[in-house]
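User: Okay, second chain of the day. Same drill as before: sequence in, structure tokens out.
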Amino acid sequence: MTTFPNSPRLLKGGIVLIDPTDGSVQRIITLQYNPETLTRTLQVLGQSESGDRSEATRLIGPPVETIKLDAEIDATDQLEFPDQNPNTAQWGISPQLAALETIIYPFNSQLQNNNTLAQTGTLEIMPIIAPLSLFIWSKTRVLPVRLTDFSITEEAFDPQLNPLRAKVSLAMRVLTVYDLGFDNKGGSLFMVYHQQKEMLTALSQGGTLSMFGNVVI
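Assistant: Same drill. Structure tokens below.
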């Protein structure tokens, strides 16, 4: 079956893990199917709660933005051709689930190293630095994020109880320059995201006061 030659290429959404120090790409995770909906919530960071009238319109920084989505993972298509997809035939969708889950796991080697330090009497062990997660949803949304909530509903299994179909619910908090700093790779990407919003605002169609009726300002 061929597709219409002029049909646009379908872009994928997903998560890219990069080294927080040098920005090198460590892992690329594409979503099998793009979610049909994506929920974004923006919480204002202001000082109006202080009760000081002079602070009522001041902004402390960028809003706290959270993103929620439900992604589906299904092995049906791959299982039609098991010879071409031996991993799916043996493990179902466990590898895809593991790729997402281990975003919030420290590396096994890091845990082993910290355990060795603890056994040798090291008094202070620094928390493990995780890779920086970038949520990519089109070329205008490359966002540094921290996963805040993660749930998996497995819906079908093979005879060995490997999952064959699942729904993954992700909640992410966008990290801003206030979280990462201006010199950080993630901070730079957030500033690009911020600038793109201002550019798009300039493209939006404005209005006139007459549209509101006999309003006096």
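The mean pLDDT is 89.

User: Thanks, on to the next one.
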